[in-house]
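hi! just following up on the protien thing from before. the input was this:
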Amino acid sequence: MTLCGWPVYKSIFGGLNKIDLGVDEGKFDKGAVMGDLFSDLKDFTAPSLFIFFGFILVLVSLGLIPSVLKESQKVNRKLIAVLGSFFILFGVLLFAIPSQTKNTQHETQNQNLAWKNSRECEFPDNHTVGQTIYRKNASGEKVHGQFGCGTKEFEAKAGYVEYRNIRIPELNNLFLRVHYSKHSESSVPIEIFFDKEKEQRIAIYLENQSDWNKFAVKDSINLGGIKSGSHTLIFKTKGQEYGVADLDKFELFK
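and the predicted 3d structure came back as:
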């Protein structure tokens, strides 16, 4: 930011940090400027004072301010030098710690803005229906397939599949994207749960692709809010002849 064409800086012993004056496109907001300066100086004044007094003590210990110590007090010069060095070091640390904290906060915010978690469905942590099946057009060429039917006569079979240890930040709206194939009627939903919840988050109907090797995406499924932590995502079905779907991959995102 600039004021009247001149950049304004805060500095201490050669360290430069630009102060935001709240000036935008030629508009000068006095309240914003004073608020920013006051907030900035609170972080700036204390470490500056520690460094300043530290240098004074070092100069005294070196005898560069001779009027301060008498000859009889020269034995204390080493102690004063140590104390001065401590003040300088402590002041420098006070400058550094807030910067690291702010950088960490910005990194966390950026990570949250871009947060996404994806997983291949052929690697569940637990399941009671479905199995790993090869599909040449699938991601990784495998699926958790024919989810919702038995293995002998392809009869309907109720059950679930679980994916555990999914780290999720606290969100007001968590969205799900499911990659799948389907060669059966779109008459039986997949119910979606988290953890040990008794109520389903949502029930979704997947469109018949008329081919187990033709994959589609069910996108932007709103699962509602969730607390930060490690969670288990569960797909449940009442079962369907030939299966409700081949589950290829899912993505959770904000």
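The mean pLDDT is 78.
The first strand starts at residue 2 and ends at 3.
cheers
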